[in-house]
Prior knowledge:
The complex is a heterotetramer.
Chain A: H1 8-25, H2 36-46, E1 53-58, H3 62-81, E2 85-90, H4 93-106, E3 122-124, H5 131-140, H6 142-145, H7 159-163, E4 172-175, H8 181-189, E5 195-199, H9 201-213, E6 218-222, H10 223-234, H11 239-267
Parallel strand pairs in A: 1-2, 1-4, 2-3, 4-5, 5-6
Chain B: H1 6-19, H2 27-60, H3 67-77, H4 90-123, H5 132-149, H6 163-207
Helix pairs in contact in B: 1-2, 1-6, 3-4, 5-6
Chain C: H1 3-29, H2 33-71, H3 77-97, H4 102-134, H5 140-155, H6 158-161, H7 166-202, H8 207-214
Helix pairs in contact in C: 1-2, 2-3
Amino acid sequence: MKIPDLKSQYVWVTVALLAYIIPGVFPLGTGFPMSDTTMEIYDIVQSLPEGSICAIGGSGVFAFDLESSAGTIPALKIMAENGVRIINVPLGTEAVQYEKFLIDASRIETKYGGTHEYGTDWIQFPYIPGGASGLVAFLDDIHAASPADVYGTPLDELPLGRELTNWEDIDLWICPHWGFPTIVQYVTGERGITSISFAQSGAYARYSPYMMSYPGQVYMTNGFLGGAQMEQLVGMKGLGHAAIDAYQVLSLLFVVFVALGNATMLTAGEEE
Amino acid sequence: MISQDPWVWISAILTIFSFTLLYGDNKFFRFAQYTYTAVVVGHSVVVGVQTLQGRFSPLISGQKPMLLISLILGLMVLFVVWRPYAWIASIPYAVIIGVGTGLMMRATLQTDVIGSIRAVIAETGKIFIGSPYDQFGYLIRVTFTIGTMFYFLFTVFVKGTGSKPVSYLRDFGKYALLIYLGLSLGNSAMQYSGLGASAINRLLRQWLGLGG
Amino acid sequence: MGATLTYVRLNLSRVLIIVGALAALGTWYFSVPMVDSVFKEVNAWQINISSFTLFTGLMTISMRYIRAIQRRDSDIWPFQAYALVLIIVWVLMGLTVGMYSDTYQTAYLSTKITLHIAILGQIIFYFTSGAYRTFRIRTLRTAALAISAVLIVALNAPWVQNPFPAASNFAMWLLNNPQMAASRTVVITGGIGSIVLGIRVILGLEKGAQRITEGE
Amino acid sequence: MIQTAVVEQLIRTGRSFQLVFLIASGIAVYYAYNVAKGGKLWDIRPIEALDAIGESIGRCAEMGRPVLVTPGISSMTSSSGGAQMLAGLTVLGEVAQQAASIGVECTTNSSNQQIIIASEAIMRNALTAAGKPELYAPGKYVRWFGGGQFSYAVGCAGQILEEKPGLIIFMGYFLADTIVTGETGARVGAIKIGGTLGAIPFLAMMCDYLMIGEEMFAASALITKDPFITGTIASQDWIKVAATAVMSIGVILYAVGIKTIYTIMGI
């Protein structure tokens, strides 16, 4: 019996339905192991006292950084519940849009019924150019490096802005972007602020040596799996869970399609 | 509940139009394709104008008269679209090629060549420490790296003395490379699978209000 | 072009390539203030020239679209007309409201970033159908490629990792050892290839660079 | 002592060995070039993908379909991608000339705006070399889709659907964008030939013929069919043999506790 060669479109429809649309609407709840690092990160975020300040920042490309959003959104929710204040410090041009998106997606703002008021509980800085040197300038003198927020409002006119002087006001740094090494080097290495990255899987593999260089000060989670673990800890099912569900089905489909391709070749006789 | 925000609708429609590429060439994909090109070009121009303003303002204010050379060289590249004088653009481009080549050579030599060779040598020390599992790993790393080098020989040991044993090493290298390609490819499936979820979930959740 | 002008031009291009490359190398290896300042200057030229190249891109794209609109001989010219209008509208909007205004950000998020996410989301589809077509084991070569890819896809999957927790460590071992070793050889040999190509450029032997700087 | 101090002041710390390596490589290339000029020809192991380029252009002529050569997404001045772009541009020139001489149209594209100028110059030059300078017009053969990785991927996919090339050569610097463009190429029935360093896994899945890693640099010399330039590939091999030898001896010595080679390389 000859197995027909499938057109690519059939493969895609199967993948779309089984791996994405059905689990997207009816989550599968695929189980996954919890990692010690994610637990530690959860404890650190949870233990930040009310009124402390967490910086969210770094540089990256929006569409790829979405992988990091899976872990960052639960972290933002925890901080909002505990009254931790947030400053977004974008070191890349697209980072501005992405960090604003994180606040929107986590629904912590008062306009969404949340607890955080702009200017008092959180501030969005504009793009800080200059890469590492821009970051250092910001850490040394926040008002000099960025006298106004992203909307052009002078920092002195914002209640939270008035409180900011330099790096000593920052209690924790979360990097929800690709570019973690710069943060580790200048924020943790030189100034001793604990840093966390909800790293993309590609970045996790590449930057994990940094984690080993600063035990107890630098933490990273691995890709969507790390995101799913954070989501589980706060009891939500977001992008991390969706990604794990999708991979559960997709990996199976991948194996099935490769086997099918080989069966097609074998049954086709002396094809090619 | 389905979204009321017009921007979410624009976003959803563009996502669907983009996904129609899976079906094949069609007018909806064309629309998305040209929207993408136009927005990226438009954005590049907005950024480019700001960059030029920032870069050449010291010339206009008279602080850096040397910038005149850069300005002239920069204007010369625009001639590329004027067929009879297009050659003028090649002069400033020589600067780009020259500096680019130098920068590439020094970085490649330091990190890719010398840095990697030193890393291979330093890993030898780890073959004798740690668990047998790790030791075997380091042994594989060192032998695979050296073995694969032989695949990339094009003119030596092709014929004559030494060609036979080297051809075995070359074959070994070829299979080591194929295993590397397969493993890297398979491992990236996880990331792209997740990115698929992020695109489709935006539609399901933000636009249609479905799912968790 | 006159013979003298051609002669001057060719040699000027060659000199600029050599000066640019040697300045970049010189300042890296030697601690000589004069070399540093030469590099600083030519590097500034290079950066400034590069910022003008954007406008040549804009000019060539406009020329192509306008030519297509004038001819109207294919069915894509209406899209090109639309793109041309959108570029103009976008630039005007950007320069008027500013790159970090809420209007600009919402527009950018709903178009560019949306399309970026959408195309990234499609990769996995092409990936699966590509694997279906390519990973057919005809030879030992395709066997090595296909088996290693399928193996790692499965080892990373929850349906393997949940019953066999050791799968995760084995996957990491494969990536850190055989995968890393061969990829490092690609880096080393590719690096050597790049350096020799660089030397060919400096010596005026690389055909591509010659065509760019020495053509009519 | 004074001499050593002067040298130490002159050469930056930790880069002496690199400098020696670079100078030795330069001498090797120059020497190989001169030996080739003296008439020496080397046996070069075949690169299947390179041989396939010529045949596929012929096939395009028979089918009346164009060729697309894409050098990818890097700039010329990127330390990771610059060399790959140049190798891709060399191939573009040779393919465009060969194609034009048998009446096949060759188009190209790029993501980075810097490359537009180079590609325009190469197309102009290749058509002139093929004796058909009248065919050239700015913007006719070189496509630009704005400076982003995936605006390039979508634009290139659109270009492939528009032009239906019979042969697509991916030669330069790429990332996951090749999955989109490669699959679109498969859909229009194009032969796909690829060569790059970083994204080889993706090209391995998408291409009919593949140049793995450094093979692309060898190909950029071999495709010119200039025996003198081809001679420089021999020098590339000498450097690799030397590097392999240093690495192997370094590994053995390090294993018995002698770290001399490792240390010297860091001077």
